[in-house]
Amino acid sequence: MAPSRVLLVFVFIPAELLLGSGSSKCVGRNFGHDSVACECNSTYCDSVGSVTLPPLGQYSTYLSSVAGSRLEAGRGRVQAQTNGTGSGLRLTVASYQKYQRIRGFGGAMTDAAAINILSLSAGAQEQLLRQYFSSEGIGYSVVRVPMASCDFSTRLYTYADAPGDYDLDNFMLAPEDTNMKIPLLQRAGAMSPRPLSLLASAWSAPAWMKTNGALTGKGSLKGQPGGKEHKAWARYYVRFLEEYAKYNLTFWALTTGNEPTAGRMTNYSFQALGFTPEEQRDWVALDLGPALHASSHPRTHVLILDDNRLLLPYWAKVVLGDVHAGRYIHGVAVHWYMDSFIPAGISLGTTHRLYPEYYLFGTEACAGWSPADRGVKLGSWERAEQYAHDIIEDLNHYVVGWTDWNLALDRTGGPNWVKNFVDSPVIVDVERDIFYKQPTFYSVAHFSKFLWAESQRVGVSASGATPLEFTAFVRPDASAVLIVLNRSSAEIQFEVWDPAVGYIPATAPARSLLTIAWNTR
């Protein structure tokens, strides 16, 4: 529960709150949930800006909380006492314990996201993209791109809808690509300080390739792996890469298809293509892998699964256990839905131990997807906590990156042709030419802004039982980052012990997310 003084501010100044620190503060709006959303327009938006660490012997902190802090910056001096700071709880960083390296964080440029971004004025569009991708933004480096339509489209389509076009002579990108997604990806790439890692996922093959003759519902590819439909579907992937390359957009990776179990369900409501793990294994070995290898994009990574982690480690055993398929595969893509049904150690941890040469990558997550908690909730800190908890849990179980779902949605959580409305870190209000940065935006920022590519997870342990959740990394420049989530209703004082530099006194306010960063040399 927020401190009473913040609640009093909401009562007496309900129109607008300036929250945070520095010259660029959050314009907080209260929509009746447990915290605020930050309002942005064409001329103003809060920003943490470019981050530089203080000299050796000092540390920086960045705090977001239910009470309204949004990446609020602070500094302090590392203490060199022999016995610590006197805090009852100590988090010890063990830099010699080394684990996976970070690849990146980001979100998805769906049709819906592009529609919403482009619905704003030119100035507001630029502002929104800068918040995600510029050096002053939150460091997004990964963008997932649906291949043709998904539920977050306004219509059903693929790039090869002409029946029997096995050679894909009529393959053509859609207006949604050429008029919306591609221009926005080019703009995002131009403002990013590093090349964007684009990730492609397909929802469905053309209806004429499928057993049910439809993009939706229960259906898989006709025939068998190695057959003409399976080879045409692999060729479709290559053509997609080739067409985007004409716009100077190259893909770091592609997945074998979004949520293959969905196409095995009866009357699935939106686009899906069913695969069993055995079918996916053989399609990669006989069709997709060879097609990519022979193409002009042989270095594009292939990620299997692209579905919920409860399917692991079984799915990985079937696919990666096959030497013919495994040689074309680089990683395993996981979604966050239904995470509560299986512990991360059993699914992610076991998969890593069995197949350490393949990386784990989070490719989709969103709040508001559950029927019990559906749609947009402007200002929901609880959802920010859900994000942070999941990211920390994933990172602590060998995941190398985490991708949110839609980059931007409207006030209803769409558009979505099947009305599968959800939430997004950015919500657009086109009538007012503004957008709101949700608490979830800042939740991801605590990771994406500070965990640069090639940052390596290191050991960290608590001196006793604590409700705090945490993860630690050493960045390529040898600086250290510790991210701490406090979901409890009590303030928790603790100290960080890094043998390389000393003790850092810290406080995690009730229901807060704290990033601490310091130089080690």
From TrEMBL:
<protein>
    <recommendedName>
        <fullName>Glucosylceramidase</fullName>
        <ecNumber>3.2.1.45</ecNumber>
    </recommendedName>
</protein>
<dbReference type="GO" id="GO:0005102">
    <property type="term" value="F:signaling receptor binding"/>
</dbReference>
<dbReference type="GO" id="GO:0005765">
    <property type="term" value="C:lysosomal membrane"/>
</dbReference>
<dbReference type="GO" id="GO:0022904">
    <property type="term" value="P:respiratory electron transport chain"/>
</dbReference>
<dbReference type="GO" id="GO:0032006">
    <property type="term" value="P:regulation of TOR signaling"/>
</dbReference>
<dbReference type="GO" id="GO:0006680">
    <property type="term" value="P:glucosylceramide catabolic process"/>
</dbReference>
<dbReference type="GO" id="GO:0030278">
    <property type="term" value="P:regulation of ossification"/>
</dbReference>
<dbReference type="GO" id="GO:0042391">
    <property type="term" value="P:regulation of membrane potential"/>
</dbReference>
<comment type="pathway">
    <text>Steroid metabolism; cholesterol metabolism.</text>
</comment>
<dbReference type="GO" id="GO:0050295">
    <property type="term" value="F:steryl-beta-glucosidase activity"/>
</dbReference>
<keyword id="KW-0326">Glycosidase</keyword>
<keyword id="KW-0378">Hydrolase</keyword>
<comment type="similarity">
    <text>Belongs to the glycosyl hydrolase 30 family.</text>
</comment>
<dbReference type="GO" id="GO:0016241">
    <property type="term" value="P:regulation of macroautophagy"/>
</dbReference>
<feature type="signal peptide">
    <location>
        <begin position="1"/>
        <end position="22"/>
    </location>
</feature>
<dbReference type="GO" id="GO:0030163">
    <property type="term" value="P:protein catabolic process"/>
</dbReference>
<dbReference type="InterPro" id="IPR001139">
    <property type="entry name" value="Glyco_hydro_30"/>
</dbReference>
<dbReference type="GO" id="GO:0046527">
    <property type="term" value="F:glucosyltransferase activity"/>
</dbReference>
<dbReference type="Pfam" id="PF17189">
    <property type="entry name" value="Glyco_hydro_30C"/>
</dbReference>
<dbReference type="GO" id="GO:0004348">
    <property type="term" value="F:glucosylceramidase activity"/>
</dbReference>
<feature type="domain" description="Glycosyl hydrolase family 30 beta sandwich">
    <location>
        <begin position="455"/>
        <end position="516"/>
    </location>
</feature>
<dbReference type="GO" id="GO:0007040">
    <property type="term" value="P:lysosome organization"/>
</dbReference>
<dbReference type="GO" id="GO:0004336">
    <property type="term" value="F:galactosylceramidase activity"/>
</dbReference>
<dbReference type="Pfam" id="PF02055">
    <property type="entry name" value="Glyco_hydro_30"/>
</dbReference>
<feature type="domain" description="Glycosyl hydrolase family 30 TIM-barrel">
    <location>
        <begin position="102"/>
        <end position="451"/>
    </location>
</feature>
<keyword id="KW-0443">Lipid metabolism</keyword>
<dbReference type="InterPro" id="IPR017853">
    <property type="entry name" value="GH"/>
</dbReference>
<dbReference type="GO" id="GO:0006914">
    <property type="term" value="P:autophagy"/>
</dbReference>
<dbReference type="GO" id="GO:0042176">
    <property type="term" value="P:regulation of protein catabolic process"/>
</dbReference>
<dbReference type="InterPro" id="IPR033453">
    <property type="entry name" value="Glyco_hydro_30_TIM-barrel"/>
</dbReference>
<dbReference type="GO" id="GO:0010605">
    <property type="term" value="P:negative regulation of macromolecule metabolic process"/>
</dbReference>
<dbReference type="GO" id="GO:0036268">
    <property type="term" value="P:swimming"/>
</dbReference>
<dbReference type="GO" id="GO:0070050">
    <property type="term" value="P:neuron cellular homeostasis"/>
</dbReference>
<dbReference type="GO" id="GO:0036269">
    <property type="term" value="P:swimming behavior"/>
</dbReference>
<keyword id="KW-0746">Sphingolipid metabolism</keyword>
<keyword id="KW-0732">Signal</keyword>
<comment type="pathway">
    <text>Lipid metabolism.</text>
</comment>
<dbReference type="InterPro" id="IPR033452">
    <property type="entry name" value="GH30_C"/>
</dbReference>
<dbReference type="GO" id="GO:0008203">
    <property type="term" value="P:cholesterol metabolic process"/>
</dbReference>
